[in-house]
Design brief:
Helices cover 34% and strands 17% of the residues. By secondary structure, the chain is an alpha/beta fold. It has a single domain (3-273), classed as Protocatechuate 4,5-dioxygenase, Chain B (3-Layer(aba) Sandwich), CATH 3.40.830.10. The strands form four sheets. The protein has a six-stranded mixed beta sheet, sandwiched between helices. A two-stranded parallel ribbon has the order 3-7. The longest helix has 15 residues, at 188-202.
Length: 274
């Protein structure tokens, strides 16, 4: 399949997405706006998708690596949560042939034993409980910078030609030490940081986004370690140069955990479809 064979509407089905997957309690807290988004809205973005390539903050390697297993193990990479979470299984299949093709395309290594970590399977078990779309993962780069991950995302632009949707799964804010488990008001610093990121994405200020750590308000507080923001840069890099960002979800949990989700639509395809 090539871009030339995709109608504008179909091409939009492969516009990359960034999601904030939140706490492992995402699937248990069924009275939140974020739960409703994952369980009732995200699936609508999977039309015509052949497979989903997940880039989760919870898998990091020295070089880009793609999981190529046929049967995907459900990985419980979290501790101290209710037993019910460890009883969940997401029985999605991989697509080894397609995963190897993508690995060759972008020059990545492969791992035929890796399953799906909770940054990948928890959103999917809510959005697509039928597990009828193949899902596999691409690792992030250990100690990789925003620029490194943006460039990694750029290598994924051709995946829409293969019918593959790229989803970056991380967090718009991620400071576990500051979480308010009493669920008080949204903290202004979290809103300021999130709004800055969204505004820079809307104005295509890529340089500012890549330099967020020195430029964004409350950047260090929002991300003491920035691994959970790196999937945003992969999704951003995977978007076309003329992307149009769409804020498809906006809520907060625990006072400052932004559950932001963005989709980077192809502006040219949108114009052609109008």
């Amino acid at each position: 399949m090539t871009n030339a064979s995709l109608s504008p509407n179909t091409a939009q089905s492969f516009a990359p997405i960034f999601i904030s997957h939140g706490s492992p309690m995402l699937v248990a807290r069924q009275n939140t706006p974020a739960f409703d988004f994952f369980a009732k809205e995200l699936d609508a973005h999977f039309d015509a998708v052949r497979a989903i390539l997940m880039v989760s903050a919870h898998w990091q390697t020295d070089v880009p690596t793609i999981s190529t297993a046929k049967s995907q193990e459900t990985i419980y990479d979290f501790r101290g949560f209710p037993k019910s979470l460890y009883d969940l299984r997401y029985n999605a299949h991989g697509d080894p042939e397609l995963a190897h093709q993508i690995a060759d395309l972008i020059g990545a290594k492969t791992d035929d034993a890796r399953g799906l970590d909770h940054g990948a399977w928890m959103p999917m078990i809510l959005a697509r409980p039928t597990a009828d779309i193949p899902v596999f993962q691409l690792s992030m780069l250990t100690h990789g910078s925003p620029s490194d991950h943006y460039e990694l995302g750029q290598k994924l632009r051709g995946l829409r030609d293969l019918g593959v949707l790229v989803i970056g799964s991380g967090a718009m804010t991620h400071n576990l030490r500051t979480l308010d488990h009493a669920e008080g008001p949204i903290e202004p610093w979290a809103q300021d940081f999130t709004n800055w990121m969204i505004d820079k994405a809307k104005t295509h200020d890529i340089n500012a986004l890549l330099g967020y750590r020195a430029q964004a308000p409350h950047a260090i507080k929002a991300h003491p370690e920035d691994d959970h923001l790196m999937p945003f840069y992969v999704a951003l890099g995977a978007a076309t140069d003329g992307y149009t960002p769409d804020l498809i979800h906006d809520s907060y949990e625990f006072g400052n955990l932004a559950m932001t989700a963005l989709r980077f639509y192809d502006q040219d395809a949108a114009k052609a479809a109008a």
